[in-house]
């Protein structure tokens, strides 16, 4: 039976017919259909996204111009629609760029800049315009006034989705009371169901942007967040990409575009943190990959009957006996001086011998003589047998020198469990591979070396019935590669590399393998530990706050910094799981929590280790905790264009984890301390109840005075005891404050006596301040463990006192006055 498919190709013109319906799609048309990708999937969400795009742009623009941002957001009900107005005091937009910014997707100033900014793609605000025109049919109304201009520009426009170009309906100049800035008015089908997310976005934006003034007026509520500081975030600078993490395709593009001619110039010019020395290291690593290394063999030992002098002399003709001997001696000495020697090193030694001897003897040693000498010595090194004593006795040939040399390397690199015979058989096979090499300089890449080792190991396993596992193989490769020499060949020029995928891939590998200083962080603007804590304190009434800012890392050539903060206890809700606050480049992320790398990392941490409750030992911890994470990067890897969630990039996840753990360690010590203080308090309460009863009983039985309970409690609890004693002294009284440190640590205290009369005869170290008829007498004694300090003064008889002690937690302190 003939199938439909098999006849399809026979019909003439069908491919042509199909081809006719193929056409390119404009990016605007694409996003018109796929608005969910940009965060405009519903009316509720669309409104939040539009606010976010406009506010992020306003903050970016003002900061870039060095202006403290002032952003006003208003949402009005407008019949069937909502009207969104966002006004900023930024630098404004020129008449030429304005229509494109709002009426063309993928148009912006940040896509190519390696500098931290909220905006990245050049899609955000034009997508909001697109969403508004799609749902309300109304154009966007934009007013903008640039600094110093008399008038403002006013436009009404939409995105022409066929062309992805702005379609302007109104264009005029107007007056505006703001000296500079931009005002956007969009109408859209929307609702306020995502009010919570909207408030969170504005509130959290205020937390991490304390230099901004933000106002939100919506149909039901009105918020104003005043500036908490006049300090703009440190200005960021654009940087070049870092060599760690740039992709192959990017480097190929960069090679095509660069003005540099050499690879050294290219890496220094186009990348950050690459100077001459680093460029040299990159080029060495590149040579290893591109050209391979040359094997270095051991020079002959004394017991080996290898006469390099004779070899050179035999190979040298017509130079006269003296010059020939001197030439041979110089080469043999140079070889003997090396631990190991590679072919190109031998070449250099022969050249140097030729120059010296030529000067001394007035003869020249041309290329042919030199080549003959190199060949003769090299053959002697790699071809000869090593006649050891045993062989000499039996007259048998020893192993080849290569076998002996490789045997030693392999023996040192493999476990002692492998017997001599196995290693020997392996070395023999590996040496055979070197001998078979077409390149008699014994030059090979690491991959080829690995193939040689694998082949030799496979054969050894097969014929000698022993195992030669992965670790042993890799160790042998490492040991041999280690003694091999990087070749001195010049790297290809940029024009030769350009378009050569394999060679460029070697360069990319070389850049990644080279130790290079972390990228400069002046392109980033982290919030800082201090401001994270301040922000959390402002927002959450907790008992404890911790924060951590990590050093910069690199991902995809872009530097990034991760910061974390934790708030615990206090007024935070103890019910349910921890609240996770996510930020990227100071922008709160309000959607897609479950798809975000930050959430994944928080869930993967064993929070029980840090003193939090975590059912099942994984997932979000329970309790009164807020965990805040900020990822700052010149290019945050979002999971989608709507920039809701950070992708699972391993280097970034590692740093997120380290930042959280750093803050969590502080939380753990706080919780541990709190727990031990709670136990102390419990114990002290019990003692405080039992001891007085016992004291009374003991006094009754013995007929003595009741002992001092405070003293006893302080000693049992290992507390610091501060006790005031007074004694009559003529007209007045002598006061001593005794500090008894029963704890196991040294303590620094701040002790203040507030006295109603002027004190005299103060003991050393006291300071006195009089205020409104009260004298504040202050000492700051350091009291060692098990030590005591006595602070003294005198006052008139009728004086009253008040003792205040600081520097020791209340649970570890007993004050008796
Ligand atoms: N309020 C504003 N004041 C001054 N310039 C602005 C303003 N809004 C936008 N721009 C300029 O317009 C460009 C495009 O903005 P758009 O929101 O489309 O993209 P973006 O912010 O660069 O990136 P993303 O798509 O990630 O939001 C910005 O890069 C910026 O140069």
UniProtKB/TrEMBL annotation:
Organism of derivation: Haloarchaeobius amylolyticus
Keyword line: ATP-binding, Coiled coil, DNA-binding, Isomerase, Nucleotide-binding, Topoisomerase
Annotated binding of ATP, by residue: 57, 88, 109-110, 119-126, 643
Encoding gene (name): top6B
Sequence similarity: Belongs to the TOP6B family.
Name assigned to this protein: Type 2 DNA topoisomerase 6 subunit B
One Pfam family in the UniProt entry: Top6b_C
UniProt xrefs under NCBIfam families: PRK04184.1, PRK14868.1, top6b
Domain of life: Archaea
Claim: Ligase is one of the keywords in the record: no
An example molecular function term from Gene Ontology annotations: DNA topoisomerase type II (double strand cut, ATP-hydrolyzing) activity
Keyword Acetylation on entry: no
Catalytic activity line of the entry: ATP-dependent breakage, passage and rejoining of double-stranded DNA
Coiled coil (residue ranges): 653-680
Cited function: Relaxes both positive and negative superturns and exhibits a strong decatenase activity.
Subunit and partners: Homodimer. Heterotetramer of two Top6A and two Top6B chains.
């Amino acid at each position: 039976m003939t199938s439909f498919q098999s006849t399809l190709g026979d019909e003439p013109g069908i491919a042509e017919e199909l081809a006719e319906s193929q056409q390119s799609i404009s990016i605007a048309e694409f996003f018109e259909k796929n608005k969910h990708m940009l965060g405009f999937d519903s009316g509720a969400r669309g409104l939040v996204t539009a606010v976010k795009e406009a506010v992020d742009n306003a903050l970016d623009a003002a900061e870039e111009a060095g202006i403290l941002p002032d952003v006003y957001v208003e949402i009005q009900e407008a019949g069937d629609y909502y009207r969104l107005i966002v006004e900023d005091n930024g630098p404004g937009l020129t008449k030429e760029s304005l229509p494109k910014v709002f009426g063309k997707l993928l148009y912006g100033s940040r896509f190519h800049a390696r500098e931290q900014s909220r905006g990245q793609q050049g899609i955000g605000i034009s997508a909001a315009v697109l969403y508004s025109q799609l749902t309300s049919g109304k154009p966007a109304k934009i007013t903008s006034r640039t600094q110093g201009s008399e008038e403002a520009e006013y436009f009404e426009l939409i995105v022409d989705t066929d062309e992805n170009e702005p379609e302007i309906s109104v264009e005029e100049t107007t007056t505006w009371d703001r000296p500079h800035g931009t005002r956007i008015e969009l109408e859209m089908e929307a609702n306020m169901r995502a009010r919570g997310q909207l408030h969170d976005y504005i509130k959290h934006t205020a937390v991490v942007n304390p230099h901004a003034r933000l106002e939100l007026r919506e149909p039901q509520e009105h918020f104003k967040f005043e500036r908490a500081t006049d300090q703009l975030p440190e200005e960021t600078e654009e940087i070049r990409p870092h060599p760690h993490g740039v992709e192959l395709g990017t480097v190929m593009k960069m090679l095509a575009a660069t003005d540099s001619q050499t690879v050294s110039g290219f890496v220094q010019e186009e990348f950050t943190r690459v100077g001459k020395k680093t460029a040299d290291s990159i080029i060495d690593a590149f040579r290893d990959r591109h050209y391979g290394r040359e094997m270095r063999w051991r020079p002959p030992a004394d017991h080996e009957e290898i006469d390099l002098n004779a070899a050179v002399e035999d190979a040298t003709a017509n130079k006269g006996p003296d010059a020939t001997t001197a030439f041979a001696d110089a080469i043999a000495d140079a070889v003997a001086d090396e631990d190991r020697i590679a072919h190109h090193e031998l070449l250099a030694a022969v050249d140097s011998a030729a120059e010296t001897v030529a000067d001394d003897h007035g003869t020249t040693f041309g290329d042919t003589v030199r080549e003959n000498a190199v060949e003769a010595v090299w053959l002697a090194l790699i071809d000869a047998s090593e006649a050891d004593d045993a062989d000499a006795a039996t007259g048998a040939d020893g192993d080849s020198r290569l076998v002996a040399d490789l045997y030693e390397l392999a023996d040192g690199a493999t476990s002692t469990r492998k017997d001599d015979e196995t290693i020997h058989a392996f070395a023999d096979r590996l040496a055979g591979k070197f001998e078979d090499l077409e390149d008699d300089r014994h030059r090979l890449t690491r991959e080829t070396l690995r193939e040689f080792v694998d082949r030799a190991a496979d054969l050894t396993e097969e014929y000698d019935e022993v195992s030669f596992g992965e670790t042993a193989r890799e160790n042998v490769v490492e040991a041999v590669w280690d003694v091999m020499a990087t070749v001195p060949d010049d790297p290809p020029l940029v024009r030769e590399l350009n378009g050569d995928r394999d060679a460029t891939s070697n360069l990319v590998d070389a850049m990644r393998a080279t130790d290079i200083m972390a990228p400069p962080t002046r392109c980033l603007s982290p919030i800082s530990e201090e401001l994270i804590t301040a922000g959390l304190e402002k927002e959450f009434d907790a008992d404890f706050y911790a924060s951590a800012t990590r050093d910069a890392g690199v991902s995809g050539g872009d530097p990034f910094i991760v910061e974390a903060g934790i708030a615990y206890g206090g007024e935070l809700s103890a019910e349910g799981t921890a609240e996770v606050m996510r930020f990227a480049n100071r922008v709160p992320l309000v959607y897609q929590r479950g798809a975000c790398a930050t959430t994944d990392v928080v869930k993967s941490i064993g929070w029980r280790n840090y003193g939090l409750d975590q059912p099942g030992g994984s997932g979000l911890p329970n309790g009164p905790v807020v965990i805040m994470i900020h990822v700052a990067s010149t290019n945050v890897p979002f999971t989608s264009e709507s920039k809701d969630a950070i992708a699972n990039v391993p280097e970034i996840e590692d740093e997120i984890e380290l930042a959280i753990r750093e803050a969590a360690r502080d939380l753990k010590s706080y919780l541990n301390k709190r727990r031990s203080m709670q136990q102390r308090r419990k114990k002290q309460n019990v003692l405080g109840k039992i001891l007085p009863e016992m004291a009374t009983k003991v006094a009754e039985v013995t007929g003595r005075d009741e002992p001092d309970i405070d003293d006893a409690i302080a000693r049992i609890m290992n507390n610091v005891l501060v006790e005031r004693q007074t004694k009559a002294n003529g007209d007045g009284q002598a006061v001593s404050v005794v500090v008894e440190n029963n704890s196991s640590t040294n303590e620094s205290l701040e002790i203040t006596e507030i006295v109603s009369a002027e004190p005299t005869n103060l003991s050393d170290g006291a300071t006195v301040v009089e205020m409104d008829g009260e004298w504040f007498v202050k000492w700051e004694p350091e009291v060692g463990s098990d030590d005591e300090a006595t602070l003294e003064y005198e006052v008139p008889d009728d004086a009253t006192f008040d003792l205040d002690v600081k520097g020791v937690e209340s649970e570890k302190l007993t004050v008796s006055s």
